[in-house]
Amino acid sequence: MRFHPTFFAGIAIALAAPAIAQDHSGSEQGEHHRESADHVADQDAFMREHGEQLSAALNHPSRAEDRARDQFRHPQETLAFFHVGPHMKVGEYAPGGGWYTRVLGHYLGGEGELVGLYYDPTSGPFNEQTQANIRKGAAGFAAEAADFTGLPADNFSGFTLESPPEDQLGTFDRILVVRMMHNLMRWNIADSELKTMRTLLKPGGMLGIVQHRAPADASAEYADGSKGYLRQDDAVGFVEALGFELVGASEVNANPRDPANWEGGVWMMPPSLGGDDAMDARTRDLGESDRMTLLFRKR
Asked: What sections of the sequence does the record tag as coiled-coil (predicted)?
């Protein structure tokens, strides 16, 4: 998970190659999982146009320690699927330890713009200290991103979704929500946060989501976000109901080795390895979680 070290201090609850997606028994999960042939072709064209710049960002020295996880997080393929161009204004939702900030900062650093988007501190189960930490994180995002990337702080900005500045509405080309939807669902703030994100996007702007995926036959109780996993059809239907249309679903971040049924939730998988020694021995070499990768367009 990508959390700022102080982000949830004091939180007042106890918490968590493109194809047809398959559940762990090999059957199709649902009708929302196909990626259109047109979108696949568009990705090829995208890489011909922007692949060199994206590769340079991924190979920047600031990412020396990050690259070990590229094999699990597939940033090049993910950003190509999301059609994130180097000229775009991109919102990184709930930025944390800097993993995607370093990629996006260098990729957008020439002609684009990276903005850190933080939770509405009044919307969730956040006590006063946590609300203060959220506001502090947003105010300090530019300086933190500069530290992460070695780029000027002027390249970055950040704000919370409590009351976005008027001049920011309708100005974003992309907003990326990476491994965070389960928190929005279990805190019952997904509706309000995604609605606000929609107001930030340009007409036709796109929302990219990467999320831990539960099997299609997982119980509603297991897949409500409290275990870190969501069913893909549930996620698609929820986002579509808020004024988005699904562009495509990619399997680039799928991991069939993850049964996605751990009693302790996704945190039993690397990199968290939150179990006891016996559990960690079972999961250590499985890679990271099975993940859906979804792209939506603002209607």
From this structure: none
Q: Which tokens belong to 260?
A: 């996605």
Whether the pTM exceeds 0.85: the reply is yes
Considering the four listed CATH numbers 2.40.420.20, 3.40.50.150, 3.30.565.10, 3.30.1390.20, the one that applies to the domain covering 31-298 is 3.40.50.150
Q: Break the chain into its structural domains and give their ranges.
A: 31-298
Question: Which runs of consecutive H residues, i.e. helices, occur in 216-287?
Answer: 232-240, 277-283
Burial of 223 (0-12, 13-18, 19+ CB in 10 A): buried
Q: Are 111 and 87 in contact (CB under 8 A)?
A: yes
DSSP conformation class of 224: B
Q: Rounded CA gap, 38 and 61, in Å?
A: 35
- CB burial class (10 A; 0-12, 13-18, 19+) of residue 257? middle
- Left (φ > 0), alpha (ψ -120 to 50) or beta: where does 173 sit? alpha
- Each residue of 214-229: pLDDT tens digit? 999 999 999 999 999 9
CA distance 276 to 136: 34
R_g (Cα) of the chain, nearest Å: 18
Q: How far apart are CA 287 and CA 291, in angstroms?
A: 11
Distances (CA, A) of 280 to 34, 35, 108, 275: 34, 34, 37, 6
Beta bridge partners, 159, equal 117
- Which residue type is seen at 103? V
Using a 10 angstrom Cβ sphere, with 0-12 exposed, 13-18 middle and 19 or more buried, the burial of residue 202 is middle
Q: What is the pLDDT of residue 5?
A: 39
